[in-house]
Amino acid sequence: MLRYTLRQVEYAVAIWDHGSVAAASAHLGVAQPTLSASLAKLEAQIGLQLFIRHHAQGVSPSPAGLRFLAEARNLITHAQDLQRDTAAAGTTIEGQLALASFATIAPSFVPPLIKGFTSLHPQVTIRMAEGTQDELLKGVRSGDFDVALLYDVDMPEDFAVTPLASFAPHVLLPGRHRLTRLKNVPLVALKDEPFVLLDIAPSRTYFTRILETAGITPNVAFSSPSLEVVRGLVGQGLGYSILVTRPFGDHSYAGEELAVRPIADEVARGVIALAALKQMRKTRLVSAFEAHCVDYFRAFAS
Amino acid sequence: MLRYTLRQVEYAVAIWDHGSVAAASAHLGVAQPTLSASLAKLEAQIGLQLFIRHHAQGVSPSPAGLRFLAEARNLITHAQDLQRDTAAAGTTIEGQLALASFATIAPSFVPPLIKGFTSLHPQVTIRMAEGTQDELLKGVRSGDFDVALLYDVDMPEDFAVTPLASFAPHVLLPGRHRLTRLKNVPLVALKDEPFVLLDIAPSRTYFTRILETAGITPNVAFSSPSLEVVRGLVGQGLGYSILVTRPFGDHSYAGEELAVRPIADEVARGVIALAALKQMRKTRLVSAFEAHCVDYFRAFAS
DNA sequence: AGCGCAGCATCGTAAAATCCTATTCAAGGT
DNA sequence: ACCTTGAATAGGATTTTACGATGCTGCGCT
User: Fold this and answer.
1) Contacts of residue B75 in chain A, CB cutoff 8 Å?
2) How many Å apart are B270 CA and D21 C1'?
3) Rounded distance between C-alpha atoms, residue A25 and residue A8, angstroms
4) Which residues make up the CATH 1.10.10.10 domain(s) of chain B?
5) To which CATH superfamily is domain B169-262 assigned?
6) How far is the CA of B110 from the C1' of D21 (A)?
7) Any strand C atom closer than 7 Å to A33 CB
8) Are B52 and A141 in contact (CB under 8 A)?
């Protein structure tokens, strides 16, 4: 347990600097008896007389006091540095931002977001991570991340969710599938087709719910947690899929042609959102990033 | 002005270490509400939420909080180091001792004193200075020195004086002076002889007072502030002197023979003493040195 | 599904620390 | 002898810190 306070040390160093209690008092804007008492108490607590008192002529440090004061000044400087850094962290836009992103959202949106934000605020570094919804929520709750970029589906009560943009899901078909002739695919047309499910929470429930809402029990032939694997399976003609994320280009990794068709029915759109803990007081940095995200996604309003 | 206290930071770091307010409370022996309030206040004062609260599962640092806490721990360590060093300075016998010595006393006594003390306490270093009585008193008063080794003559009221040993003054004569035939020299015999005065305060007044007490008005032919110059002048046959300090050997620097004779009269002895400021609370180190001096000079009891 | 437990926050209060103004006291300079 | 300077003390108001008791809420266990 520490036996002295920063305030006491601060005063003692000021008395040293000014050569007298009275001068320090004037300079600090603190009454002279306050300093006198504070110094006396500090000396008692550390068991060391710091100053020699000269009647009507100020004080001067004792040999042992001088050694203490030299170190004490370092401590005060250290404390001031910490305060300054902390104040900066709270009010200016700099430092590190820990951002987690849902795996299928990350490749399309995170790079431009980071590019835009860091060129706006060069003092900022961003730490990135991707994961499933569960992992993101856990990470934010445990303090590993400041915010998470994810789909606003089944979000728990303790998260503050900022919607950014919504995207309509689409049907993904093999390039030569007979339904590719249609401009819009009604969900009923998929009734008996084999379904390739993107199997990540909460996407899984989101997609199956879309089909079930249309009265269709999906015939899940394959499933994978990887978007690219799903696209590959569809490319191989093993079934259709329903997705929100739409990478640039109409080919799978392996090169098979793919076809993307809007859904004819009215369906729930996938809402991309930024989520943070409700209980967390936002730093300026986090707020600024949030604003930047809103800005960036405004372009996708549709 | 610093906006947080060491106590607050100490508590916050403890909470971090133990993962919960309750655990830190048990470990610190401080009530849980105290820590809770202290943390809340600290967060408000630095404008930064340090911890995420988990219901019934402790707390975990936020990303920004983590950065603060890492630095905060350094600060606490710094403060603890200072406290430890200071406590050591107050209670153990180590560190630096600033010793000032009257110029004529120094050569004979300071080297053995330092040798003896530092071999007793190897952790101690001693800073040395010599000077006139005025300089010594000024140095001790201004905090340049912890203690001064000097003659206890005309000591001001604000000094605490510890007598160490007393030495009888002697008459110093040229080697072939007629009075060298006497075993003890009565002061009256010096009545008309030229006097060579060691002219340093307070020795000057001490020596002249001795002669005046015996009813003699000294005929000051020469004076010098240097003991060795005085001995040289006497060696040249330019007069006699009265001194307390008696170097080893009966020759001046230039090689002239000198004779030392006790004074037949009853005269005031020169008292060597250690002086410190009354108002200064002594460190263990100073007390130990004082004790060592008393010990060392016991051998000179005469 | 309900219940108990764990753990943080809040409330009320007592003790201690902090700070102020007014005053006293001592040394030095005039 | 008096005035100035500057530290210490006294007394009192305010703030801070601490405590115990209690409330509240999610988690895990039956």
Assistant:
1) 75, 78-79, 82
2) 73
3) 13
4) 6-91
5) Periplasmic binding protein-like II (3.40.190.10)
6) 67
7) yes
8) yes
Domain with CATH 3.40.190.10 in chain B: 95-166+270-298, 169-262
Which of A3, A85, A96 lies nearest to residue B71, judging by beta carbons?
Answer: A85
* Length of chain A measured in residues: 302
Is the pLDDT at B302 greater than 70? The verdict is no
**Residue B131 and residue B145 in contact, taking contact as beta carbons nearer than 8 Å:** no
Highest CATH level, class, for B95-166+270-298: alpha beta
CATH of the domain spanning B6-91: 1.10.10.10
Nearest CA in chain A to B2: A80
Q: Which stretches of chain A drop beneath a pLDDT of 50?
A: none
Helices (H), chain A: 6-18, 21-28, 32-46, 63-91, 106-120, 133-141, 203-213, 227-235, 284-298
Residue-level pLDDT at B88: 85
The nearest CA of chain A is from the CA of B9 a distance in Å of 10
Quickly give A56 CA vs C21 C1' distance in Å.
21
B272 pLDDT higher than 80: yes
**Parallel, antiparallel, or unpaired for β B258-262 and A219-224?**
unpaired
Angle, CA of B177, B182 and B184, to the nearest 5°: 115
Cβ atoms within 10 Å of B257's Cβ, excluding its own: 13
Tell me the two tokens of residue B32: 């849980």
